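sry for the spam today, last one i promise. struct tokens for design, 142 residues
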């Protein structure tokens, strides 16, 4: 279920409702750290206009980091990174015939100038993305 928060410092975007169980592990880390977050489900393929509008709107908000969770072709983190100057952390979903390796390779092979900080595949990657977002926020405020 999506969770909206106008005070979010971290936005987590998943490409599909099927990614929600994976995302919950990272949201728990953010909650335990007291970090305000927002969770949305927006697909780079099925909802490109909505995704573009949403990511571009984030510059008017206190958001400092985007975590983008995607599997298979995994376009979501790259599209987000192409639309904003905010740090984008990509988390490959451990799904599909290659168990997330295809998503991982998609995220780490971004064109020059469109950086995506890519974490590990699956649950560990999602948890580490949340921890890395917390560190980025702490650096931004020090």
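last one done:
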């Amino acid at each position: 279920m999506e969770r909206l928060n106008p005070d979010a410092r971290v936005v987590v975007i998943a490409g599909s409702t099927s990614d929600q169980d994976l995302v919950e592990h990272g949201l728990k880390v953010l909650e335990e750290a007291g970090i305000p977050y927002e969770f949305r489900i927006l697909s780079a393929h099925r909802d490109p206009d909505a995704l573009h509008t949403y990511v571009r709107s984030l510059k008017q908000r206190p958001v400092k980091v985007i975590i983008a969770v995607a599997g298979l072709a995994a376009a979501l983190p790259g599209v987000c990174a192409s639309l904003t100057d905010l740090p984008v952390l990509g988390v490959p979903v451990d799904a599909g015939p290659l168990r997330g390796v295809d998503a991982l390779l998609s995220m780490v092979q971004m064109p020059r100038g469109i950086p995506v900080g890519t974490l590990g595949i699956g649950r560990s990657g999602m948890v580490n993305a949340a921890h890395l977002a917390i560190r980025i926020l702490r650096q931004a405020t020090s």
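The CA atoms of residues 102 and 130 lie 22 Å apart. ok im logging off now
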